What we know:
Elements: E1 4-7, H1 13-23, H2 32-40, E2 44-50, E3 53-65, E4 68-78, H3 87-101, E5 105-111, H4 115-123, E6 127-136, E7 141-148
Parallel strand pairs: 4-5
Antiparallel strand pairs: 1-2, 2-3, 3-4, 5-7, 6-7
Amino acid sequence: xxxxxxxxxxxxxxxxxxxxxxxxxxxxxxxxxxxxxxxxxxxxxxxxxxxxxxxxxxxxxxxxxxxxxxxxxxxxxxxxxxxxxxxxxxxxxxxxxxxxxxxxxxxxxxxxxxxxxxxxxxxxxxxxxxxxxxxxxxxxxxxxxxxxxxxxxxxx
Length: 156
């Protein structure tokens, strides 16, 4: 089945929270209200849809003035049943395309033990710039802070 990316729908926030509980068990998964707050703040959120079923989601915040913006990947999640099909990569690329339109540097945090995610981010130009000890709660897992420089069009 083909998966399409579209703006995240409010009616899918309950599904986002359900996926959070599956994907981030043992941590502090986001609630439906947390996702609603992200949308209320105007952050850029996409859903990955197989038909009407939400199978993944991703969010990005942008801050600053035009020409001097920073972006932060807030979350990327894919239903375990749908993992390994390139959905996470497609969501990341869509977030990066949005950041590129603003010429924004992009930051994110990732668990230090999530080798697959780290490899994905490195393949898309991210480098590790720091370590946040005990970042994820309640597990106390560490996170790397990663950054990707702003992509600026060259003029000739």
